[in-house]
Design brief:
By secondary structure, the protein is of the alpha/beta class. It is built from six helices and twelve strands.
Length: about 350
């Protein structure tokens, strides 16, 4: 009886040993869908910086990135005439899908732009001052997209746009230029005692001095975007935006820079001095169920090569799209007194 039982047991062991383990293929995680909107910006470098933003987000391996150009194209202004490149170099060297666009010599004041924002997890604005206001239906669609949980990233001159669009001003917290004034909201800054001040005083909306390196101070170290970043870090040559105004509702200042009275005074306007306060450079705003990452950094292409700009953009984009940040801080992140930049050439 014992022999009869041994046979099937032996056979069972042989069959088990001979079986190949089935390989289970793990599907790669679905990437987040991001969209960059450009086409009108007062900084003529924008065709290149759009491609830089696209590349930086794709480097995270979290995003697929598309670009949508508005229905009008204005290259902006060549502020520094001593720069060697031709005015049209950036639009020629960084075309979009080999398409040709009619380029206006002046800002175009009307727009028929429309878009289905709901197809994307994240919208990035690389627009700028004098961008034409979207039609009412498009504005309403974007407001609904954000209220229902959309993600939005606003970079540098994108906060100059649409000063007369109330809901946009709520989305970005603080804005500059674009027809804004005292009625748009207070100046918001930290004083030397670390107090958050909302200043309703009179004065211009939007100012900066010549480009220079400046230090950022982390103000919300436990926020997912900032967690793990040093308390202070040095940013490369850039414009230091100050005197922004807005409703500043449901907003958190993530990082500030000191707008020195003399160093940040615009030489083209002797009537204005630097504010002499610690002003917002990075912000996080909640709008309904949606999230907004607002960075004032990124005036020119070299400004966007700063590792600090790249890292905060990548982390801010992930937070705006998902509400969390999974990315590590790179080892070459800037220190309190050392700039770190990576040349971007494509």
């Amino acid at each position: 009886m014992k022999k009869l039982m041994a046979i099937p047991l032996f056979c069972l062991l042989m069959i088990s040993c001979g079986e190949k383990k089935k390989e289970v293929k793990e599907e790669p995680p679905t990437k987040l869908k991001a969209l960059i909107i450009d086409g009108q910006n007062n900084h003529y470098v924008w065709p290149k910086t759009t491609m830089m933003i696209k590349d930086y987000l794709e480097q995270t391996e979290l995003f697929t990135v598309s670009i949508e150009r508005m229905d009008s194209v204005w290259l902006g202004v060549k502020y520094n005439q001593s720069r060697p490149e031709a005015y049209t170099m950036f639009i020629e060297n960084y075309p979009l899908n080999d398409k040709e666009y009619a380029i206006s010599d002046e800002p175009i004041t009307t727009s028929e732009f429309s878009f289905n924002f709901n197809e994307y997890d994240l919208i990035i604005s690389n627009l700028g001052e004098k961008s034409p206001l979207w039609p009412a239906e498009t504005r309403k669609a974007f407001e609904e997209y954000m209220s229902n949980g959309g993600g939005f990233v606003v970079l540098h001159a994108a906060n100059n746009a649409w000063g007369n669009w109330d809901e946009f001003n709520k989305m970005i917290g603080l804005g500059a230029w674009g027809g804004r004034d005292e009625s748009s909201g207070p100046y918001v800054y930290y004083n030397e005692d670390g107090q958050l001040i909302k200043d309703n005083g009179e004065g211009v909306c939007g100012s900066h001095g010549p480009e220079y390196e400046f230090q950022l101070t982390t103000r919300a170290p436990e926020h997912p975007i900032m967690k793990g970043l040093p308390e202070k870090w040095l940013h490369t040559k850039d414009e230091l935006y100050e005197r922004m105004r807005g409703p500043f509702e449901n907003a958190t200042i993530l990082a500030t820079a000191f707008a020195d009275v003399e160093k940040n005074a615009p030489p083209w306007d002797p009537n204005v001095k630097g504010l002499g306060q610690h002003v917002a450079q990075l912000m996080a705003i909640n709008y309904g169920k949606g999230r907004v990452f607002h960075s004032t950094l990124g005036h020119f292409d070299y400004s966007m090569e700063c590792v600090g700009f790249i890292t905060t953009l990548q982390r801010g984009a992930e937070w705006a799209a998902t509400g969390k940040v999974t990315q590590e801080i790179p080892d070459n992140f800037p220190t309190e007194d050392t700039v770190q930049s990576i040349d971007w050439t494509k």
